[in-house]
Specification:
mainly alpha
């Protein structure tokens, strides 16, 4: 059997374990047998059943969808741009989504998640186009380094504007701060049902781009010689990344480093072929996100640390180690 098939099966088992840990562990531990009873014979009079169905099941399923979306978005961006630093947060997607959500709250008084979804999509799309346009200036075109620098510049500019608005608008800050931190907690099943169609479309589109990304990750002249339609491939890759990262950000707020870390872990297991990196990233993303969420519940009882903070603590050292590697540009 192909080694990658065995690893994929092992990751599927690890994901199942992460799902079970997410359902059972927390400030109120619940035995696995009680979880099964709650799922198959729910009794609203039993507190543990209510905890599982109303709190942990939506949180776990949202972590599954958002983790898969962020992992895939990072892999698609790294393949399409040939940039090992590509990540929704580094390329300005999170900042663009946050900027538009803040504008929606400030200018129109919007506080409903349905509005956040479209605002986040619009902000993510415009930020992506803006970063690519800025990086394309000059003779060399959008090189990996220029994309990273343009993403950092756009992110810094949008973050500064968001900070300026929040400092002068206490009401907006009160609405925005719970969304901004990046949290799975406090989201109910309605949140999942509203973003699930977008995440499913983005996941299907991303998984269908395996061979396209393999072509885009090669030298452009070689890819054209093999019949690859470079422009169309980049448009589809950008569209899938915007849907995935925009939907995930709209649901739980900006969560950094998952999209950066997961594709590199997947690449270490599979090699450079994106038709394998994509499914591995789709499994590794939720494993990392759910594990970080469980750790956040256990480190500061009876409170908890939000998952966006835990992933940042994990991802920052990984990012530093990554940029210190000699062959950074080689994917």
């Amino acid at each position: 059997m192909d080694r990658r098939i065995s690893l994929l099966a092992a990751l599927a088992l690890a994901l199942l374990a992460a799902l079970l840990l997410s359902l059972t562990l927390g400030a109120r531990p619940v035995p696995l047998s009680m979880v099964w009873t709650a799922l198959t014979a729910f009794d609203p009079g039993v507190i543990d059943h209510t905890v599982i169905i109303d709190l942990r099941l939506p949180r776990t399923l949202l972590g599954l969808g958002v983790g898969a979306a962020l992992g895939l978005a990072g892999a698609v961006l790294q393949g399409a741009t040939r940039n090992p630093l590509a990540d929704p947060s580094i390329l300005g997607i999170h900042a663009g989504a946050s900027f538009f959500v803040v504008l929606g709250i400030t200018l129109f008084g919007l506080t409903d998640l349905r509005h956040y979804i479209w605002l986040a999509f619009a902000g993510a799309a415009l930020a992506t186009v803006g970063v690519y346009a800025v990086a394309s200036i000059g003779r060399d075109g959008p090189s990996p380094i220029k994309l990273a620098l343009a993403g950092a510049a756009v992110t810094a500019a949008l973050t500064s504007v968001v900070s300026a608005i929040l400092l002068t608008q206490p009401t907006t800050l009160d609405q925005f701060r719970f969304w901004q931190v990046g949290a799975l907690a406090g989201r109910d099943m309605a949140v999942l049902t509203q973003v699930a169609p977008f995440l499913l479309v983005g996941i299907v589109l991303a998984l269908a781009l395996g061979r396209t990304l393999d072509g885009l990750s090669m030298d452009e002249a070689v890819a054209k010689g093999l019949g690859q339609r470079i422009g169309l491939g980049r448009v589809l890759a950008g569209l899938s990344a915007i849907i995935l990262a925009g939907g995930a950000t709209a649901a739980v707020g900006p969560i950094a480093f998952v999209g950066l870390t997961v594709p590199h872990l997947a690449r270490g297991m599979t090699g450079p072929a994106y038709r394998w990196i994509l499914p591995f990233s789709m499994l590794l993303g939720p494993i990392l996100l759910l594990a970080a969420d469980v750790v956040g519940r256990l480190v500061a009882p009876p409170g908890e640390v939000q998952v966006g903070i835990v992933t940042a603590l994990i991802g920052a050292p990984f990012f530093i180690a990554l940029i210190r590697r000699r062959k950074l540009a080689e994917l």
